[in-house]
Design brief:
Helix content is 3%, strand content 44%. By secondary structure, the chain is mainly beta.
Length: 182
């Protein structure tokens, strides 16, 4: 037991405990990209490989997709995380109901000259230490083009409405004994 400053000063370290976060990997996307189509599809700009250090680890996926613009006045966008290696949606996503599209998160953009940030996080239990390729799938209303990190207008002006943004995608691994998922 370390109970005084003398012990601490001599280099004795009390049990740090925790150890909950085991590893993390993050990417940033500063360039622009786009996607056209009504069904969610692979957005390759968000491709990331990740290998858990323990087979029972819990992974937390977090994204901030910046400045999503569309090519017409009103548009909805929808996304989910995807395990490319095992062909499966990762984490929480909507309940099956008729022919409704099942996604994890979405946004509504009410004018093509506006932008928004889309933030979402979810848990995943890969059950392996093998490297898995993950990505994000996304789509926009109808056949509209969804732009990432820019507006639909993207005019070359100094107006705040035409600024460029950035996106991030992070996977954080936590020890199984510190995270309970129900």
């Amino acid at each position: 037991t370390v109970g005084d400053n003398t012990a601490r000063a001599s280099g004795v370290i009390a049990s740090a405990g925790g150890g909950t976060m085991l590893s993390a990997k993050s990417m940033k996307l500063e360039s622009t990209t786009s996607r056209t189509g009504t069904a969610p599809a692979h957005i390759s700009a968000f491709d990331m490989s990740f290998a858990a250090t323990k087979s029972d680890s819990k992974l937390y996926f977090q994204v901030c997709i910046g400045e999503i613009g569309v090519s017409t006045d009103v548009c909805n966008t929808a996304f989910y995380f995807y395990d490319v290696t095992n062909s499966a949606i990762v984490g929480a996503y909507g309940d099956a109901a008729g022919s409704r599209l099942r996604v994890s998160w979405g946004t509504n953009i009410d004018h093509y000259h506006r932008q928004t940030n889309s933030n979402f996080g979810t848990w995943h239990e890969p059950g392996t230490t093998s490297s898995i390729d993950y990505t994000i799938y996304g789509a926009a209303t109808g056949s509209q083009t969804m732009y990432i990190n820019r507006s639909g207008w993207d005019a070359d002006t100094s107006s705040i409405e035409d600024y460029r943004g950035a996106s991030t995608f992070t996977i954080t691994e936590y020890a199984a004994d510190t995270v309970t998922l129900t």
